[in-house]
Each structure stands twice: as structure tokens, then as C-alpha cells.
């Protein structure tokens, strides 16, 4: 029997389970939505979990391990579960009831389509994060047994739709680490999630890939049915130099590191990010040949695998695809050849991968040859942020540049995962990731999650009051997470850069820009 803790008890907060209830409630309300949880389960035993169909494939030991990351929640009707643009670290399985999925802007009768095309007489909206592609002006109703939210959650993308309960619902809420493990362990679940992805998103993702943009819909639809979806853990080997090349791989999310043997060891010769392909060199230029380099995932990475036969059909029908792949193959050969010869370049790629520079949309670099250590950059930052600087002038060095410990405003901001209140979020301005002070409860989850030490916990000198929720914080010292917000609320741009009297603080938007900066100095 599953015990549900009520969200409220005669108007008062229940004395047990409060923390989880309030964290869920805060999370939804932080997105501007109304909390609608009627009850939420305590930690579930393997037997209780197995009552729900999606957990039946697993043994007791496994279910015991994942159970802290699973909750069964009862939601009232018309409750917003999440809104467009929200970053989630969990997916929802509908156990009972139905959920409406829709585009907020359309519901408000102000459609703002990013891209559209006619399909079967109706319009389809292409959404950047590819969770759902909805017929324009309408929504979709999901029922028992369906899953949603998982594509955005597992890829680190914002949700592309708003989800609202249409009836009272019982939802299994599974955090990403547990979902990844479940997917890895159960072929059935992997097939099920892949099927959902194919039905809801794959067509649009292929269609919006630069390589396939000009291909007709019927061809892409047929291709979408045949491609294989490959999910990789960090450091998983996709291709081994010298072994037979089997397919063309398209990166859906994450990064692949390409390396070649060099003497006794190996050198990083390139990396591939979302939208890039692996295999064109081997399948086009040297048909039936072996991999010219090894490829491994840098982090959790999702790939689309196009077989040699499907690639042949694609090339036969579309000369522009062949032209594009040939250009890409030639560029790759030049790049890997150059990087192999210039060990400094291989080292640069390795550093970029290790330090996460390829994640960055805005990385603060300081030219140490020119910098006088006056700290005007730090003071400029502090002056713009109530006396509290948002970065420290320290970090790793590469050649004569300091890679400052200031937020990179990552493509995949892992700091957002697990914030119980939604305080840290992507601002609606470019790629800016910001923290809303009033919502931050100082739990440090974001600081622990950020791989680049870009979040600092500040002491505020205050103590949480006795009526604070969650209860565990009562009487404890109040901490506040702080990070760079790119000075986006000012009209002068990054103060750290503008305040440097010697012009040696710069922000770069990509690894390529950093490379140009290095080249200028050499
Ligand atoms: S805080 Fe860290 S993980 Fe988050 S966007 Fe900044 S650098 Fe990336
Ligand atoms: S410390 Fe970070 S994760 Fe915790 S509430 Fe504040 S912003 Fe969110
Ligand atoms: S961009 Fe603004 S907030 Fe970010 S480090 Fe520079 S001065 Fe500070």
C-alpha cells in the first residue's frame, strides 16, 4: 500500500514529508505555475514500485538503489506541471489520468512559430528543444502509460511545451540519473523511449539538421523510421581507429572526442558537437574502409546512426547532401592532419574538452602578459552587483591566458539540474544563466553540480527563521549562491571586460574564438 503524504493538513503544513512536498511545490511555483500536488509518496519499496508497470523489469536490489529518485505524486486537475522553457531533471510517467501538452503562446492566441511547414494538411511547429512538435494552434492529450518531459530532461534542453493535468492524475516522477540507469538496464524501456522520441521529435530534428534541410519530407520520414538511436555514457567508445567503419553518426546532443594513435599514445584531433557528423570521411572518400580515428563520448551523448545502405540511398537521391558531406570530409581530413602534426593543437583540443570550453557561450579570458593584477575587473563586477563580485580572478591557465572562474553560460547548464526552487535558471536573454536571490535557499546543489567552479556560496550573516520551509533550514545560517549574470540587466555589457584599464579581459563565445585570440598573440 502506498502512503501519500498530503500537501496540506487542515490548512497546516504536514509534519512529515514536508521537505519533499515543499521542494516540489517551490519548484513548480518558481516557474510561475501553481502547485497542484495533493499528495506525494514517501520512499517506495521495491514491491511498491513494481506495482507500476514501468518498474516491473527490475530486481529488488536495483529498485532499492533507484527508489530515492522516484516519487509517485497525486496531482489535482488543471495543475501546471511545468512550463515552456523550464529545465527539468525528471520525467513523468502517467499512471492514471490525463495530461494536456500545449504551447503557452498559442493558448493565449498569440502564436509565435519558430518555423513551420504544412504536413498532411496541417501545420507542424518545430521546437528548438524537440520535445514535442505540435499541430499549430492545438495541443495534445496524453493518457495512462505515456511518458513526457524525458527528452528535455535527458538532453539538458528546456522543455518546449507547457504540461497541465486535464484530470486528477497519478504520476510517477523519475529523476534523470534513475531514468538513465533504467534505460540502460531494460531493453524494453529503451525501445519504448526511443519509440516516443521517433514519434514526437525525430522527424523535426532530422529536418532541422543542416545536412538534411533540403530533403523532402517523405524521404526524411522514411529515414526516421530506419535510423538507430544510440545513447552513450561518458567515455563510451563509438569507433576504434583501424576497425571497419559501419555507419554515419549524427550528434543529437553531447560531444564526441576524435583521437588518433600517435607513437605509444594517442592525440585528440577534433571534437564533434550537436548537428555534426562522424563517418563521412570513411564512407564517402574511402568507401568500405576503416575508421581513420577513434571516437568516444565526452559526456552523456545521444547519436543518430544512419546505416551505410541508407546513406547510399540518401546520396543517390540528393546531390546536395553528397556535396555537403564531401566538404565536411575534406575539412575533417585537413583538420585532423593539421592537428596531428601540430601537437600544440592536439593539446589545445584536449584542454578544451577537459576544461569544458566547448560548453561555453561566454568565457572570461584574461591576458596575463598584459594584466597588472589591479583587480579593476573584479571591482567592476562588484560595483554592478551590490558590492558582491560574481567571479574570482583565478583559474586554469592556457598559454598566456587565464581562464577565469566565471560562469561559461553553458550550452548544457548542468548547474540547473536539481535546484529545488528553480532559483537558478536560464534568463530569457540569450544564453544567460542567472540565480534569483529571493528564491535561493543556499542548498549548494548548483555549486556542487557546476564542473567549472563558477558558483560561489556567500554567507549572508542571516539565520533562517523558525517558520522556514523546508524545516531542515530553520535556525541555520543563510547561504546564497552567486554567479556571473553577464551583467544582462545593465546597459553597459560585461563590467569585468569594460572596467579593465588595459583591455586584457575579454569574453569569448566559442573554442574557435579562443583559438583566434591565441593566434593573435603568437
Ligand atoms: S554555473 Fe557552471 S554549469 Fe552552470 S552555466 Fe555556469 S559554468 Fe555552466
Ligand atoms: S544554492 Fe543553487 S541549487 Fe540551491 S536553491 Fe540556490 S540556486 Fe538553487
Ligand atoms: S559579465 Fe558581469 S557579472 Fe559576469 S563576471 Fe563580468 S562583471 Fe561579473
Index terms:
522 residues; alpha+beta; Jelly Rolls; Alpha-Beta Plaits; 3 domains; six-stranded antiparallel β-sheet; 28 strands
List the helices and strands and how they pair.
Layout: E1 4-6, H1 18-30, E2 37-41, H2 46-49, H3 60-66, E3 70-75, E4 80-82, E5 90-96, E6 99-102, H4 104-107, E7 116-119, E8 122-125, E9 140-142, E10 147-148, H5 150-155, E11 162-165, E12 169-175, H6 176-185, H7 187-207, H8 217-226, E13 228-232, E14 237-239, E15 247-253, E16 256-262, E17 265-272, E18 277-278, H9 280-285, E19 294-297, E20 301-307, H10 308-317, H11 319-341, H12 343-354, E21 363-367, H13 376-384, E22 392-398, E23 401-405, E24 424-426, E25 433-435, H14 445-449, E26 456-463, E27 477-482, H15 495-499, E28 505-508, H16 511-521
Antiparallel strand pairs: 1-2, 2-3, 3-12, 4-11, 5-10, 5-12, 6-9, 6-11, 7-8, 13-20, 14-19, 15-18, 15-20, 16-17, 16-19, 21-23, 21-28, 22-23, 24-25, 26-27
The structure holds iron/sulfur cluster (3 copies).
Number of strands: 28
- CATH homology superfamily of the largest domain: Jelly Rolls
Described by the principal axes of the CA atoms, the overall outline is: globular
Q: Which percent range fits the helix content?
A: 25-40%
- Beta-strand proportion: 25-35%
Q: What's the architecture of the largest domain in CATH terms? A: Sandwich
Rg, Å, rounded:
25 Å
Question: What class, by secondary structure content?
Answer: alpha+beta
Tell me the number of helical segments per DSSP (H or I, 4 or more residues long). Answer: 16
Our count of domains comes out at 3
With strands numbered from the N-terminus, the spatial order across the biggest sheet is 1-2-3-12-5-10
